[in-house]
Amino acid sequence: MAAVPVKFENPSELATIHKLPCKIEHEGPARISDLFAVAADGTSSFRGKKLESVTSSLPEGYTGIVLRKSKTTTDAEEDEFHLTHSFNEVTSWGWDSKPSSMNFEKLISIQSALHKN
Q: Contact 90/64 with Cβ under 8 angstroms?
């Protein structure tokens, strides 16, 4: 496993993470509260299609992070990343039905098994 240099900007700022069932041609921050209204029952719509949500928390002792690549590098240079936000839950969205909650414990155990020496 390779080490990646990371510079810390403001890791104390919590991000709200949304996993949508579509591809959006945008990477980076967005004014979600201005563009994406969520009703009290956890529903919304995107381009006229109904969305339903489920929010999954990361296991105790884990923190998700958002990294931003700060520069394009050549083969001789290493990529540089900046830690911009952290998060402790992910909201997943599904078309016309609630998606399954994300089982982070299962994902972590699979990742651990794959990266064992």
A: yes
pTM: 0.70
Q: What is the pLDDT of residues 12-69, one digit of tens each?
A: 678 888 888 887 787 777 777 777 788 888 888 888 888 999 888 888 888 888 888 7
HSE-up of residue 39 (Cα within 13 Å, Cβ side): 8
Could you give the CA distance from residue 14 to residue 111 in angstroms, rounded to a whole number?
24
Instruction: Report the alpha-carbon distance of residue 77 to residue 12 in Å, rounded.
Output: 29
Angle at 44 between CA 66 and CA 19, to 5 degrees: 25
